[in-house]
Write a structure and sequence with these properties.
The structure is a single chain. The chain is 9% helix and 38% strand. The protein is mainly beta and 344 residues long. It is elongated and about 100 Å long.
């Protein structure tokens, strides 16, 4: 029995020795970023405020943006119970390195603060977009610097959303207005014939929240694939439209939008022609209808009509091969020397 007790004491001593060698103290380094739109790349964000409390997020919360800005947290059980003196506050993190392309790189907007206890509730505030986020930071052992990236996304809908272990709050979110819009596509085979409606499956209607001064359609194949390309960087493409037009009983194609400007695309599958337009309707106004007419007898590569740009690649310069020049006719009666001539 004494031997067993000695073994237990020895194990406890060894365990306590290991704890002395380990520490959860670390420097928490935050890299704040902002993504203005879903298609944008996150960019460095300056002016963010950072603080932490040695509390658990299951029992403590941030009640409002004003509290977050002031560094105040409240008890979930008794909201009148508050704390207003954070355990640590973020200060600028200084760093200068070299990027992958060899250019100097700075830690723009980065913040640092010490963390030495657990649990830890970390709160970050973006005063520019009036957003704040918080998370429950898990403890780490023997890590002198803990680097964390945080992306604020002002475009996100809703007053609250999560990303990873972070909870984001937007107390100033207002649901966007919604507007039903219509596209009425028609075609004419000749100048004299009447306008006709497309049969189901012959036309495709969709729209992006995009500006035609920034985005383009490179080809008919891209148009049919619902793909648009950024003009200044063709490596950036989008192939998931924000809105899809569906045929309705009135023969028009309807879709409900909630943002402007929109880039509307109509694709004539039967004749491999496409058209696009930029529209900025009043989301609180009347329901608009945009008419687009495909004049099939015209031999224009690109044509502007009624606010639409209509493209028929059949008549593009690349597809207009010049007629080959005729080869010279061979001499029908070539002169053949007479072997008996000039014989001596």
């Amino acid at each position: 029995m004494k031997l067993k007790f000695l073994y237990c004491m020895l194990a406890a001593a060894l365990f306590s020795g290991c704890l002395k060698d380990n520490t959860i103290a670390t420097t928490y380094v935050l890299k704040p970023l902002v993504q203005a739109k879903s298609v944008d790349q996150p960019e460095p964000l300056e002016g963010v405020r950072l603080f932490t409390y040695a509390v658990d997020t299951t029992t403590w919360q941030v009640l409002s943006y004003d509290d977050a800005l002031a560094g105040v947290i409240s008890s979930k059980e008794t909201p009148r119970e508050q704390q207003s003196e954070p355990a640590a506050i973020g200060t600028p993190y200084q760093f200068t390195g070299t990027a992958a392309d060899g250019t100097p790189s700075e830690a723009v907007g980065w913040l640092q603060m010490p963390i030495s206890r657990q649990p830890q509730m970390v709160v970050a505030v973006d005063p520019t977009n009036r957003l704040f986020a918080y998370t429950m930071q898990e403890s780490v052992l023997n890590v002198p610097f803990l680097y964390v990236s945080l992306v604020f996304a002002p475009y996100k809908e809703g007053r609250c959303y999560t990303s990873g272990r972070w909870v984001f709050r937007n107390d100033f979110y207002n649901p966007p207005a919604k507007l039903k819009v219509y596209v009425d596509p028609k075609f004419k085979t000749t100048a004299e014939t009447a306008e006709e409606a497309y049969a189901n499956g012959q036309i495709k209607i969709y729209a992006y929240v995009a500006d035609t001064t920034d985005w383009k359609i490179k080809s008919y194949e891209d148009a049919w694939a619902s793909r648009i390309t950024l003009k200044r960087d063709e490596r950036q493409q989008r192939d998931e439209p924000n809105f899809i037009g569906y045929a309705e009983e009135n023969g028009k194609y309807g879709m409900t939008i909630n943002s402007t400007p929109i880039m509307i695309v109509a694709v004539d599958r039967a004749n491999k022609i496409y058209a696009y337009t930029k529209q900025t309707p009043d989301l609180k106004g009347e329901e608009p209808t945009w008419n687009v007419l495909f004049s099939l007898w015209l031999e224009d590569w690109i044509r502007e009509e009624n606010g639409w740009t209509i493209v028929n690649e059949k008549f593009s310069p690349e597809n207009q091969k010049p007629d080959p020049e005729p080869e010279p006719d061979p001499d029908p009666d070539p002169e053949v020397p007479d072997p008996n001539t000039d014989k001596q």
